[in-house]
Known about the structure:
The protein is of the alpha/beta class.
Amino acid sequence: MQHIFEHGTNGRTLLLLHGTGGTEKDLIGLGKEIDANANILSVRGNVSENGMPRFFRRIAEGVFDMEDLLFRTKELNDFVQQASEEYKFDRNQVIAIGYSNGANIAGSLLFHHENSLRAAILHHPMVPNRDAQIPSLNNVDVWIGAGTNDFMCPSQESEQLEQMLQAHGANVETAWFNHGHQLTMPEVQAAKAWYTAIFK
Ligand code: MLT
């Protein structure tokens, strides 16, 4: 997969996953804001929707092509494994940071591949799959950033995602912001405070 890798010094790796229409360059600054000393693995989604990169196909806004979602989730998980061998980083210390479509594929990694992520920061995610056989998520930490006026993700989506992750053992914290689908600086700062408390 098209990607950027930058070496850090603390043994952790931030897996950066952009929103629809983004690229692997979009979230580099955000990743450095969260943890300036981690490795960065920033990936571009392999699907194009009218020229806009995405991580999996959708049938309509908010309606996912489930077959493609499962295929692309495995493809990304395999890619992270290969990258860990090539760049020699610890596969058990990968923390995803995703926004919108990128948050949804990060959620899909958690739902479908055991031990795929050590932790995840999900900015404006949805429930990726209501029928998944979710693996154990013991020792997985997840932070969800949600907007009270998010047209794309109604509040029940964030609440249900939190409940489904918790039901399988994840430690989940959800933070609400009086905004829509956009990613704001206060949200990034809240994610950073959570991350710093976990990985002090
Ligand atoms: C998705 O398709 O993943 C969601 O609708 C969010 C987005 O617009 O990317």
